[in-house]
């Protein structure tokens, strides 16, 4: 997952380890709330990410074809690293646990790691590697990685 440094619109591509483009992430600017769309190479919207601007907690809704499929929120206080909680529409609850330096995250369900997210230390672009360990929810796990990245970026801008 790479973000462009100098772009007038927010766009990033999610690629496989073989540099095949899987999804394009488009951010809609100039809205009261931030909206991202996951678009496959054929132009189909696979998921939408909506972050409301006026919330106490950083809460993001994930939608697919207009239906709410997940809600991710960042915990306000954590002593050693960031923690996010995810509520899925099917009732499952995931947690995303990160290290103190906001470089490594694991997406977990009942103690099992579903994906590992890591940010490169030295790179001209913001580059994240997402190791998806289960193909069942691969798109959702990639969407959650984008949510973590943009939530942390929002928090940095607020400081």
Give an overview of the whole structure.
It is a single chain. The protein is about 15% helix and about 45% strand. The longest helix has 21 residues. The two termini are about 25 Å apart. With about 160 residues, the chain is mostly beta strands. It is globular, with a radius of gyration of 15 Å. The chain is built from one helix and twelve strands; from the N terminus they run E-E-E-E-E-E-E-E-E-E-E-E-H. The N terminus is likely disordered. The chain has a twelve-stranded antiparallel beta sheet with strand order 1-2-3-4-5-6-7-8-9-10-11-12, with helices on one face.
List its salient traits.
159 residues, mainly beta, twelve-stranded antiparallel beta sheet
Question: How many strand units?
Answer: 12
Radius of gyration: 15 Å
Count of separate DSSP helical elements:
1
Order of secondary-structure elements = EEEEEEEEEEEEH
The largest pleated sheet is described as:
12 strands, antiparallel
**Helix percentage:** 10-25%
Can you list the strand order of the major beta sheet?
1-2-3-4-5-6-7-8-9-10-11-12
Structural class: mainly beta
Which shape, going by the Cα principal axes?
A: globular
Global mean pLDDT: 78
Contiguous uncertain segments of 5+ residues: 1-9
Give the end-to-end Cα distance, rounded to a whole number of Å: 25 Å
């Amino acid at each position: 997952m790479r973000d462009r440094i100098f772009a007038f619109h927010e766009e990033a591509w999610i690629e496989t380890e073989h540099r095949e483009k899987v999804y394009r992430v488009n951010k809609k600017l100039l809205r009261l709330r931030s909206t991202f769309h996951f678009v496959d190479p054929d132009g189909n919207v696979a998921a939408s990410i909506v972050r409301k601007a006026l919330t106490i907690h950083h809460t993001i809704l994930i939608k697919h074809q207009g239906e709410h499929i997940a809600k991710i929120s960042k915990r306000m206080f954590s002593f050693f690293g960031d923690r996010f909680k995810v509520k899925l529409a099917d009732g499952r609850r995931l947690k995303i646990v990160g290290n103190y330096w906001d470089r490594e995250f694991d997406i977990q369900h009942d103690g099992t790691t579903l994906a590992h997210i890591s940010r490169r230390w030295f790179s001209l672009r913001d580059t994240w590697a997402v190791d998806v360990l289960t193909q069942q929810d691969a798109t959702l796990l990639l969407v959650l990685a984008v949510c973590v990245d943009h939530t942390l970026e929002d928090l940095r801008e607020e400081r």
